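Render this sequence as a predicted structure.
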Amino acid sequence: MDDKKRVPEKQLDQQELLLQLNEVEKKLADLKARWPFHSVQPKLVAEREDLEEERDRLLGIINSL
């Protein structure tokens, strides 16, 4: 393997985390765009909470690198 082409593992991990964060942000934006003005279904609330928790978890990991 050519050492010049190797990406440091930490950088690779950070890139993967950033990709995951981007995907979560897209899902969250899509959910907010579909958010009804009235009578929000409990499953939408739960999905939003899950996405926000995942976003916060990923941000915490990224910031600790």
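Summary. Residues 9 and 39 are 46 Å apart (CA to CA). The two ends are 26 Å apart (CA to CA).
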